[in-house]
Known about the structure:
By secondary structure, chain A is α/β, with parallel strands linked by helices. Chain A has a single domain (2-253), classed as Rossmann fold (3-Layer(aba) Sandwich). Chain A is 39% helix and 24% strand. In chain A, strands 6-7-8-3-9-10 form a 6-stranded mixed β-sheet, with helices on both faces. The longest helix of chain A is centred in the C-terminal third of the chain and has 18 residues, at 183-200. Chain A is globular, with a radius of gyration of 19 Å. Chain B has 3 domains: 1-90 and 178-242, P-loop containing nucleotide triphosphate hydrolases (Rossmann fold, 3-Layer(aba) Sandwich); 98-176, no CATH class; 250-283, no CATH class. By secondary structure, chain B is α/β, with parallel strands linked by helices. Chain B contains 12 helices and 10 strands. In chain B, the strands form 2 sheets. In chain B, strands 6-7-8-3-9-10 form a 6-stranded mixed β-sheet, sandwiched between helices. In chain B, strands 2-1-4-5 form a 4-stranded antiparallel β-sheet, covered by helices on one side. In chain B, a hairpin with a 2-residue loop joins strand 1 (12-26) and strand 2 (29-42). Chains A and B meet through helix 7, helix 8 and helix 10 of A and helix 8, helix 9, helix 11 and helix 12 of B.
Amino acid sequence: MLSITDLSLTLAGKHADLAILRSVTLAVATGEAVGLVGESGSGKSMTLRSILHMAPVNATVTGQILLDGLDVLSLRGEDLRRMRSRDVSMIAQNPHAVLNPVLPVERYLVEGMHDAQGLATRLARVRAGELLEQVGIDEVDRVLRSYPHQLSGGMLQRVVIAGAIAGKPRLLLADEPTTALDVTTQAEVCAILDECRRELGMAMLFVTHDLDLAAAVCDRINVMKDGEIVETGVPEQLRDDPQHPYTRALMASRPAGIGWTRRGGTV
Amino acid sequence: MNAAEVAAGTAPVIVVDNLTRTFHTGHGRTVTALDRISLTVEAGTCLAVVGESGSGKTTLARIIVGLERADAGTVTLAGRAVAPKARRRELRRRARQIQMVFQDPQSSLNRRLPVSAAVDEVLRAHSGLGARARRERCAALFEQVGLEPRHLAARPDELSGGQRQRVAIARALAADPAVIVLDESVAALDVTVQAQILQLLAELRAEKGLTYLFITHDLSVVQQIADHVVVMRRGVIVERGTTAAVLGDPQHPYTQLLLECAPRPGWKPQRGVIRALRDEIAS
């Protein structure tokens, strides 16, 4: 459904131009979860931002991005707005930067649904509650009334996920959505993302620096380094038989054997 | 007492006894960051303190180095009590015993000065060396932490995150301490750089007989560096033991939950398992 071909992004610098992305080519099938793994500065976030036309103003973007045949890079005005509100959603690393600190979180959810889907406010309120239940929140009413500072990071990220899936997008862009969270919360949020994705048949492009996390969440993984995709494969393939030296270095940086499995199988 | 002397002895270098600290967060609410915490660290070993945000692990580190005061309980460092309001002479003595490396060297290094100035400042305070000898010592410390002579004159923003953390380690070493407290010191680094810094820390420990107190949320970091672990949750130590025992055969459901949630090959996060462990912790 998403196919990126030869995407290059260059930032105009004071002295020289800086190549951030070099001929990035990747594809995401309908309902598929694809990982984009790399270290800081590798260009993974910039790839996501290019899809939504959110690259910096001094950037030159070339190449092609097709979303179900729609040429994304040529979209302007109303067409671009429609793509952003209906087809593609994004979750960022820091939910505090997404939510308005002086409004209860209900307003964030209701406003989005009202503006993007034309849902009446009263219906949007009901729907907001349902969405929060869907992302594993128990005390829906309390959370809806809360201001961002009254909720934990994990709870806020769930609210942002609820907002992102409200319009039933076909593609979810997740940019390090769990990096700011504790490990136990990270595991829960990943499980929730996975459930939502399956229920809605939504495709996902998941950006992370953590190869093990990407392997748990994604069907396929692209490894990025210095603005290029150096290797693509299914998680097991990258783990057992990494081809590129950089993938091998990533694998070698984390010791194996961490993690413990509850005896007596799953609960 | 310097590192070599401490390493030669058998006495614990850090003794924490019944440490309690409560923060008042306004509107009459309080948070007990530390609830009667006791632990000891033997000379030349590395103890990891593991926990999630709000577990009290950073408060513990800050009290041990004397940056924060406890409501009750004591910290003894190589046989001497740590008091937050010590005399200048006592503070100088303590600085030569214990140093701290923070998470983000970007904010602990002056961005307008060459990074060697940070190291030189510590040498000026603690070494009694002349300007020329300090320059040589500084260059030697840079070499020890794997930096090159050209890095001495660099400003923080000209260095990578890993290089800046190496400078922070060089600064800690400049006081020739017996103990280094590392508060999430590799958390902000990319995994490949993280592995290099952990390797460097292991080498320095072996070479100098240093004692580490390593505060982290990351169990794979614990596995790579620590001899012993304490697991903290909401100001209480819920489990302690050797790294192999705690990570290999966790007893407390919270430790089990942390391990269950650690991303690893072949892992799938499952809400059912997480919820069951959370229920067990609650009960």
